[in-house]
Amino acid sequence: MIRVLLADDQALLRGTFRLLIDSCDDMEVVGEAADGHQAVELARARQPDVVLMDIRMPGADGLAATAAMCEDPDLASTRVLILTMFETEEYVAQALRVGASGFLGKYVTTDALLNGIRTVAAGEALLSPGATQALITRFLTTPASGPPLSPAARLADLTPREQEVTVLAAHGKSNDQIAQELVLSVLTVRTHIQRAMTKLGARDRAQLVVIAYQNGLVRPEPPSL
């Protein structure tokens, strides 16, 4: 059972999301928060698998709440899925940098939302859509202010196969696609991803991709003319 915490300042939307999520046999809503501070407090109390997080909320916004959750060792197993009307490139970049595992606009279909929650809960990242891939290529190589994302990241510690798999993940390919391209089993690909995450200090697949771009393992493609 996937335990989901809802963080949105609009009660009507929270109610709608609760109905959708609770109608599924494999997930349940374990709490609702109307602002970022409450979201962090409830996450620590309820230990959800996934937090469905809005960005613009009163008080602490969704980005601040996401950063607080991702920096908390007691919430190491909690994943954050950003869901917002304001799907700007800057917001997506900031969300991934502070540790979010995915980013969806509120216009998504019901199936896309529910599958997104399942994807993030499974440790994957919502990085495959074309718009998000374009964002990664454009923004994640830009140094962020403050300390490095992962001071302990050492690309040289990766085996050639781990580097190869990481590069393909950074280009937005799913485990199934990577397995097909490299003629490997999906389980083997997942193992390589997990080992790369451990060596680079990445808490999830999204952060692994950020590290790969920011440390030069993957280079942005030149814009098409």
TrEMBL record:
Key words of the record: DNA-binding, Phosphoprotein, Transcription, Transcription regulation
Example of a GO biological process term: phosphorelay signal transduction system
Pfam families: GerE, Response_reg
Domain Response regulatory: residue ranges: 3-121
Modified residues (4-aspartylphosphate): 54
GO MF annotation, one: DNA binding
Coiled coil: none
Superkingdom in the source lineage: Bacteria
InterPro entries to which the protein is assigned, alphabetical: CheY-like_superfamily, NreC/VraR/RcsB-like_REC, Sig_transdc_resp-reg_C-effctor, Sig_transdc_resp-reg_receiver, Tscrpt_reg_LuxR_C, WalR-like
Domain HTH luxR-type: 151-216
Name the UniProt record assigns to this protein: DNA-binding NarL/FixJ family response regulator
Organism the protein comes from: Streptomyces zagrosensis
